[in-house]
Every structure is written in C-alpha cells, then in structure tokens.
Specification:
Among the domains are: about 160 residues, ANL, N-terminal domain (Rossmann fold, 3-Layer(aba) Sandwich), CATH 3.40.50.12780; about 100 residues, GMP Synthetase, Chain A, domain 3 (2-Layer Sandwich). Helix content is about 30%, strand content about 25%. Helix 5 links the parallel strand 5 and strand 6. Helix 2 crosses helix 3. The protein is globular, with a radius of gyration of 23 Å.
C-alpha cells in the first residue's frame, strides 16, 4: 500500500524497530523510533486541541535538535503545513514570511525567540498574530511551552486522504524577485525520498549513522538527509552549529558512516594533517547544494580514501535531481546523471530542445517536483510536467550533467540562496545611498560571496568608509548573515545599458578579474 504521508515512515519504523535509536544530539540526548513516534503523535494531537486545523500553516524556527524533528513530523501528522525557516533570520525576514504564509503558530527555540517576538510586533494590524510555542527556554506572557502543547492522551489522526495535499512551504528565491515559498506536497517529498533510495549503490543503510550538520530548515537537510534517515531507519546525529574541529571529533566519537556536507566544509577540513584518521568510520561523503571543484574531490579522496559523490538539486525538486552515484563512470566536473524516475532535457532561448552536447537551460520532470509557488501555484511545472530550473548545463553522451552557468542572477553562499534584489532593496534604505547593485563573487570558503556596488548620493564627498560602515550596520539588522555583503565597493556610478539597466555581467567580470589578481 503506497504511503500518502511522510510521518507514516516513523510509525512503520516504530512498529518494526521500536528500540533502535533514531535521533541523537551532539550533547547526548537521544530518542528511539518508538519514542519519536510517541512525540509525533502527542504533538499532532496537541495541535488539534489548540485549534490548528488541517491545511493551516505552522512555522518552525528551531535549530538542528530533536524538537525540530518532532515538531516537523507532528505538523505533517496533523495534516498541517510546515514552514521551516532559518532560526537566525532577522525580525524583518520573519515578519514577511509570517504574513505571506498566513502562519497560525510559530515554534521557536531560544536562538530565534527574540527575533520572532520582534517580528510579530512588526506585523501590520490586519495580520493575525500567531501563537508562539517555545522550546529550550521559558515562554513569555501569552506564549506556550512545547510541553504544554503535547497531548496527554493521543487521539488517532485519520490517514491523509490525498498525497497531493501540501506538506511544506520552503522559502527560496524561485526564478525572480524576493524569496517565494515553494509548495511541496507529500507526494513530492515522498517521491524524492524513494528516487534517492532507488540509487545503486545505496546512499544510506539501516545500520548507518548519518551526520546531521546541514540545516534542517534547508531542503537538503530536511528531505535529502532527514527524509533518507526516516526511509532507511538509520540513526541521525543532530549538530546545531558547524565547527570544523568539533564536527570531526563527533564523526569519530559517534562512528558516523555517511557524511552529507556542503562544499565549503572541504576547505576547513583539508588542511588537517590527521584527516584520514579522524574520518576513519566514514564510508561515504555526499556533497550538494552547490558545485564542488573536481580538484577538491581528487585531493580529499587521495588523502582520506573516502569516495565523494555529489549531485544537483533544487528546492523545487525536493531536492535531488542527479547524483554521481547514477553515472556510468566518474567524469570530472560532472554532477552525475538523473535519479531513477527523473527526466532531464535542455532547451534554448526559444524553448526548443537542445541536441548533442551544446549547453541549454535545464528542465526537469518527475513526481518529485513542487506544485508551484505559494499561494496560487504560479510558475510551477508546465502542462507536460516540465519545470525550467533557470540553470544552464550540458549533457554528455552517457547522460551526465555538467553545470555551466545560471540564467537567473542567484548567488549561492554556502549552499544558501541569496537573491540580489532583496539585498539591493535593503542597501537602498540607507541614507546617502543613491543606487546599488549586488553580484556574486567566487569565494574559496563559501563558494560565492555577496559583493555590493554602492553609488552614494552626490558622489563620494561624504566619505567612502562612512557609507560602507552605514551599509554594513544596516545589513546586520535587516539581513541574515549569509545574505550580508562580504565586500562593499563604493563607486561613482554603475555600468548601465542604453535602456538604463545595470550591466551586472560587467560587474561579475570585474570580480573574476579580481580573483585572478588582475585587479587590486
């Protein structure tokens, strides 16, 4: 019988291996599959008792800890829609997502709580103020403790009638404008979990210990990592913050065998002269969320003897589209071939299909695709099921995909999407800024870095340093850390086309020349 609901994976595991450990935190707390099922059931019942109904939205601003997993799965069990967000988001970012999603309740840990409270104070009077449920610290006036939401007596929840029902809203840049919420159904999330599980050799086994350092609010951590653990009944080691040395210690201490990470991690680990010994328990490293240079893979594997497999994915695909585990033979620079059940094709500017190994915009088709963007399903897959990713690549004769460029101006910082429009709008709020343009620049640690070109009002007479400081200070208040400019260039003017559009290609060219040492 096919599953309709992600949380059914927990119930099945609790029936089959109740005493096996499912989750363990780096601090030592743990939960068995039976314990996880009990928590999920109690939270699902508690949501109903507190008036949260099927189809309503619940935001989760919680770090990588047991409570993220229990609340996410409890929300899905209750047939409510999960809205996982970065617990380090700024109040302005949170306020916008609360209002946009129509969130009825917010789970917040101690890291997110102050920003959540400030966000709710920023809401327009006509936006309903959601209830705040607090974990990790004491609730304030009008707030609930997580334990107060847990039901003492569990009421059975009827099975989800339709896997097309919305499971999660994940905010991403989409193809234009400010971040929008991708609508991921239970069907899409379950399909990608099964597509990944069909890869041979398998990425995970039931006896694996899987490193959970990738943020669970990000689709890679949420469905590629947590979803895989649920499917295979592996054990997930939850790590709230990435510290290069402490994570290596944890991998050794907890005998992690599967290590999913983002590309910037390699730059932190490669200089360690004892890296091979410290990664002794590891059988497989998985890299995703941004391209990884072939030289880095070669260096890492020659030092450690551990294979590194990477893939290509996106939030709208739940997320995994390709993997080098699906390649007929390893090809340097490839992000692998399509997973079972996923189709790829390339199209040109007129949407005609590209033949041979010429580059084109990547289109994807499969049951793992999202249902469009919230709230009306706009800009989703076309009538034939194809979704245009905005990425440019080429396919070799064996079906391996090679990424070339991006149609959209997305910047990817440590695997997180940054859309320049959002950053530019924030910079223009600063007194003394006449205009701004934001581009991505190559960065060894984060893959790309955000660089802002800023034009001051009335030239630069007011002082470049003063304006730089003002922009940085404002960005700290208004933007999450990964969205803030790593460098600010104060310039007399921006390069414009004849129609007045900023020539960002020229700015990116300047950044490439700077990386090559051709500019100071």
């Amino acid at each position: 019988m096919p599953r309709n609901d992600i949380s059914a994976l927990v119930a099945e595991a609790a029936d089959d291996v109740p005493d096996r450990q499912a989750l363990v935190e780096s601090g030592g707390r743990s939960l068995t599959w039976a314990g996880l099922e009990d928590e999920v059931s109690r939270l699902a019942t508690g949501l109903g008792t507190h008036g949260v109904r099927a189809g309503q939205r619940v935001m989760i601003a919680v770090g990588n800890r047991i409570e993220f997993v229990t609340t996410y799965l409890g929300v899905l069990r209750a047939q409510v829609v999960a809205v996982p967000v970065n617990p380090r988001s700024t109040p302005g970012e949170l306020a916008r997502m609360v209002a946009d999603s129509g969130t009825r309740l917010v789970f917040a840990d101690e890291t997110a709580l102050d920003a959540v409270r400030a966000a709710l104070d920023e809401l327009d009077p006509d936006v309903a103020r959601p209830t705040v449920v607090v974990t990790g610290t004491a609730p304030g006036e009008g707030e609930l403790a997580l334990d107060d939401l847990r039901a003492d007596v569990v009421r059975p929840v009827p099975p989800l009638p339709d896997p097309e029902k919305l499971a999660a809203l994940l905010y991403t840049s989409g193809t234009s404008g400010l971040p929008r919420a991708a609508m991921l159904s239970h069907r899409a999330l379950l399909a990608n979990i099964e597509q990944v599980a069909a890869v041979q050799p398998p990425m995970m086994h039931g006896d694996d210990v899987v490193l959970g350092v990738l943020p669970l609010f990000h689709v890679y951590g949420l469905n590629a990592v947590l979803g895989g653990v649920l499917r295979h009944r592996a054990r997930l080691l939850l790590v709230e913050r990435f510290d290069p040395q402490s994570v290596l210690d944890l991998i050794d201490d907890e005998a992690c065998s599967v290590v999913p990470i983002a590309p910037p991690v390699f730059a932190h680990w490669l200089p360690d002269e004892h890296l091979r010994e410290r990664l002794g328990p590891v059988r497989l490293v998985l890299s995703g969320s941004a391209p990884l240079e072939p030289e880095v893979i070669e260096q890492f594997t020659s030092i450690t003897g551990i294979p590194v497999h990477q893939g290509y994915g996106l939030t709208e695909a739940s997320p995994v589209v390709t993997s080098t585990l699906c390649s007929h033979e390893p090809r340097a620079g490839s992000v692998g071939a399509a997973l079972p059940g996923i189709e790829l094709r390339l199209v040109d500017e007129t949407w005609g299909q590209v033949e041979g190994e010429d580059p084109g915009q990547i289109q994807v088709r499969g049951d793992n695709l999202f249902s469009g963007y919230w709230p009306d399903g706009a800009d989703g897959p076309d009538a034939d099921g194809w979704y245009a990713t905005g990425d440019v690549g080429f396919l070799d004769a064996s079906g391996d995909l090679f990424l070339v460029d991006r149609v959209k101006e997305l910047i990817i910082v440590s695997g997180f999407n940054v859309y320049p429009t959002e950053v530019e709008d924030v910079i223009r709020e600063v007194d003394g800024v006449a205009d701004a343009a934001v581009v991505g620049a190559p960065d060894e640690e984060t893959g790309e870095a955000v660089v802002a070109y800023v034009v001051p009002v009335g030239g630069v007479a007011g002082g470049r340093t003063h304006l730089e400081d003002a922009v940085r200070a404002h960005a700290v208040v208004r933007l999450a850390r990964f969205k803030r400019p790593a460098r600010i260039e104060v310039v007399d003017e921006l390069p414009l086309t004849a129609t007045g559009k900023v020539q960002k290609g020229r700015l990116r060219g300047l950044e490439r020349r700077r990386v090559q040492g051709l500019l100071p």
